[in-house]
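Before anything else, study the sequence and fold tokens given here and see whether the fold suits the sequence. Record follows:
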Amino acid sequence: MSPANTQPSSAPDDPIANLPLLELRDGLSEVIDSDSALNDTVEAFRSGTGPVAVDAERASGYRYSHRAYLVQLRREGSGSALVDPIPFGDLSVLGDAIVDTEWIIHAANQDLACLAEVGMVPRQVFDTELAGRLLGYPKVGLASLVSEVLGYRMRKEHSAADWSTRPLPAPWLVYAALDVEMLIELRNAIEQELRREGKWDWAEQEFAAILDAPPREPKPDPWRRTSGMHRVRNRRSLAVVRALWEARDQIAASADISPGRVLPDAAIVEAASAMPTDRDTLQKLTAFKGRGAHRHMRTWWEAIDHARRLPDSELPKQGPRYDGPPPARAWADRDPDAAARLSAARAAVAEIAEAHRLPTENLLAPDTIRRLAWSPPPDMSREVVETFLRDHHAREWQIALTAEVLTAAMTSEAKKPLD
């Protein structure tokens, strides 16, 4: 299901053509960390032409916050810039200078929040990762797309680095600058493919939806995402997981340290499974022998002891809260008709996705299909299904492709005679 081969866009006599993408065309610029340098950068990017390639580096896995520790930009006529947002706190003056042009961002959903936190909010985006999905590329990471579409090899050895480090090492800065080095060329090549395949309008709707999406609300009971939770079997043990998770989260937030570096998920699950009866027993658990866990041993024991003493009425429920339909694996027993509708709807949507070389989840959100199959609207018709999809944030191109087959799937299963 991979797209047709695309030749590299660089001419044969281009000095960087047919080479690994290891060097910057304009050399490595100084990190912008002073008011005067920022003012010069603002003027340079205001006077540039065309779209702006934008990227941000966070310190995931090292810090509690998801703030940007480096912002990279590139624009025709402006060159590249590496901006350290920490000395400024707010980069709205830079965001305002480029707000009226298109921002090219790879995996925009990952970077828009941290960019907004420093005052950089686009009005128009081109998401190269999402565009790659619409084109059916099997791998849509930046390095994979640059290789497949433009013919350059990118190194990604610093992707998991601690970007809160100061000063940032020069090899890291080269890596960060390379992330925007080819984004403009990649965007232009991908637009040509989208137009050639009749998917440009789809992409425009998807890009607009990214900007129109409301801020993500925190998920209920975030402690339930603790890795290894499936090994916790009873409500009392769940209470221990919750208590330890919340205690860890408070420590991590106050120190701006990744929670996993304060206490690993494995330690939380081990304590919940062992249910120690005193502090000495807790200290003997394998996952609590490390220096990090030992530093806050009193806090961990107090959290566990509190969970052990909770009345049954205050213990967490076995399953997470969810306002949607039950897990699909339970449908056959609970509502066989709904299970049949879901099977028919999934098959119909998958067939359309395959015909258009799309991941099924990019054609229509799986949760939307489940909700429609579990509780279909009364007086089923295509117009009713279209309204349902629109109410669940489906884009018009998605509705045009799926409304008819979903209507057929819902009504055909409803009309089948009982055995």
In short: The chain is about 50% helix and 5% strand.
